[in-house]
Amino acid sequence: MIEIKGLSHSFGKKIVLDNIDLTVPDGTILGVVGINGAGKSTLLRLLSGVYKSQNTVLYDGKSPMLPETRQDIFFLPDEPYYTGANTSNKLFDFYRTFYPNADRNIFDALLSEYKIDSKMAMRNFSKGMRRQVFIALALAVKPKYMLLDEAFDGLDPLSRKLFKDAIIKYVDEENTTVIITSHSLRELEDFCDRFVLIDNAKINSEGDIVEHVSRLCKFSLAFSNDISEKEFSSLPTVSLEIKGRFVTVVLEGESGDMYSKLLKLSPAVIEEMPLDFEEAFIHDVMSGRGN
Amino acid sequence: MMKNGFSAYFKSALFENLRVVLIVVFVSAFVFVPMLSDWQTHSFFHYVVRDNGYVDKIYEGSVMANQIPEGALKGFDTNFGIAVALVIFLSLVVPIFNFAKFKNRRNLDTLYSLPLSRRKFALAHYLSGLIAVLVPTAIGFLVEVGVIIGYGAFSFIDLGWLFVYFLLLMITGWLFYSMNLFVFNEANHIFDGVVFVICWNLLFYVVAFPSNLLSSFFDELATPFGYIMEILSRTEAVIETTPFYLDWYFGFETVIAFTLLWATLGLISVVLFFARCNKQSPERVGGISDSFFGYKLFIPLYVAPVVLFSHIGHGIRSIGDVAVFFSLAFVGYIIFRRGFKFKLSDYCTFGALVLFAIIKAAICHFDIYHFLH
Prior knowledge:
The complex is a heterodimer of chains A (291) and B (373). Chain A is α/β, with parallel strands linked by helices and 291 residues long. Chain A has helices at 40-48, 67-70, 88-98, 104-114, 127-141, 157-174, 185-191, 209-214, 255-263, 277-287, and strands at residues 2-11, 14-24, 29-33, 57-59, 73-76, 145-149, 177-181, 194-199, 202-208, 216-222, 237-243, 246-252, 269-273. In chain A, helix 4 packs antiparallel against helix 5. The longest helix of chain A is centred in the middle third of the chain and has 18 residues, at 157-174. The relative contact order of chain A is 0.14.
């Protein structure tokens, strides 16, 4: 279990993370979301021991600053380091000395699925191919905690699917904890158990993605005459867009209740629209509110 | 397991350096050898003791060869130019190449998340860099030993001093590599690191230059590369001429004083490097290099002696020269802060130097040069 208590971090005078509290149970896939510069990567660097966390981060009670704790952690940064002469095979051998449980068969199988030549120098790979090698490495290392920064970057749709399937399978089998950041919220929505939204250096909202999304509902309405914002003032509006007689509204609440309330405005047409995690995220950030 | 992790990382660091070393050795072979190694100096000579007690060397085959008396002691001219060039060049370049990866924040994301302590990372790179300095240097030394053997001249040189020479080559290589590594590692950016290495290597020379306190001999010893060349050329002379010149070549107190100075600074560098490697923040990498052992130290150290010794030396004669150095110091602060966002400490240091210059100009009319002599 990862316990974060009162975690703060700043770059000079700029506070990036301010008094973050978070508990991540074992076997969880946690998606960390936030706008650019929100502090997602900084959070992962603090969790991985790259930045010093002053005992505000604990893995089963142990600090990630201890090399023996990092034995259980695999951090895949946005742009991982490798030497130009490295082949995938050499990279695996190098990592195996740090992570003795690393499984060659898993690594080879994943590279084969990604159709990557393990004897080719990595400097000749595209960004996406290098990403695939490191993802294969992350899974082959079999860490207890996997920290993935912008893991989907550069991956084609097929590779993304392979990656997500592999992660889900791996978490089921090994009870691994995965923390992943991504700008592609639709990708996270598919397979994360929970999410954390970081905004203005604090946790803006967190919880189950499905539950969080289901708290909001989106409707498209058409009226016979022009309508004003005032008509919607009594409703729990998250966002409202009026274009003449046409309205798109996101409301916080159970969709059946909201539908009934909207009917009282006598729309000519009313239709419930699907709302995904990305829209919920945008609404959360724009409104600057959480739970 | 951790031991395996360290040895694996050490091997990878060593392998990375191999490319740098091969390039340097290649460059040495094709550039330094013709430049620095005059193969003609590999020749036999005879000692000729003159009536006034001086000892001359007369080379076999020279026009003066007919002056060689019967039974004169024979010697052989050696030339360790390749080894000296390698030890100087590598001790300057390897710290920069070897630790440049630690000046990239993205590299640190991967490296510092591995289960290895930062001190062990530093140790692995320190040792791999040291090997990259010393092994090619030792090979350069052995090449010269091979040449000596090839000439059949082994019996004409002092083998004991040859061993001392090898030790000095290794020790000076180790100490100067450590010094350059320490100052480079204090920077948060590669550019600043290179500036620090240059500033450090010229520091004592710049201190000595305006003072004109000592002869040019001081100047030679005041830079690490000058010291290495001086101490090794003196030892090489002893290898060749032990029977006559031992006292003469090592009689200078200045040489001993500088040996103590550089050895002390080298050892301090080793200690400080390992003491501070654990404290540097990856967050600051790529940003302003505000370590005390950097611009904060070098800028005042470069300017203060100029102010102190203005008007007295052959190098600094007028207040205009001092003004030039203050302008350079100002530029130094702009480079340091990457712009004009100076800190209070910068204003204080710069202000103190200006105040010092004003006080010195107003009060200290006496000539410090003659005062000290």
